[in-house]
Amino acid sequence: MSQFPPRAFIRMAAQLDASEPQPALSHSSVQDSDLGLRFLSLRDVLDRLTISRSLLYELIKDPVQPFPAPVHIGRRSVWVEKEVESYMRAVLTAARR
Q1: Cβ neighbours around 70 below 10 Å, total
Q2: d(CA 73, CA 39)
Q3: Which fold has domain 37-97?
């Protein structure tokens, strides 16, 4: 299964916007403020947290303060940038108490 290059996604989004208005998202957890979402790849998450891949997956399974689980888009796993940032803030707050 091939992956689309980022330019292809941009072109597809532009074509969708130009064609006709799309119905509003019906998923209850997606809010209007989430329209500016950005996805982070595994490499981006590891670079931001400066941890290893194995530690990241251990943090996802942590029962006390779990790291946000990835969103699966096809065969790719991506993380929502806002969720990663809020986790980092929570860890920083807990460490400074």
Answers
A1: 20
A2: 10
A3: Recoverin; domain 1 (1.10.238)
The overall average pLDDT reported for the chain is: 80
* pLDDT exceeds cutoff 80 at 13: no
* C-alpha span between 28 and 95 (Å, rounded): 33
What span, in angstroms and rounded, lies between the C-alpha atoms of 9 and 82? 21
User: Taking CA 79 as the corner, what is the angle to CA 92 and CA 67, rounded to the nearest 5 degrees?
Assistant: 40
Amino acid at site 92: L
Could you tell me the pLDDT band of residue 30, with boundaries at 50, 70 and 90? Answer: low
Instruction: At 32, list the tokens.
Output: 């209007």
Q: What is the pTM of this model?
A: 0.63
Segments making up each domain of the chain, as ranges = 37-97
Residue for token digits 């941009």? 10
Higher confidence at residue 11 or residue 5?
Answer: 11
Are the C-beta atoms of 68 and 89 separated by less than 8 Å?
no
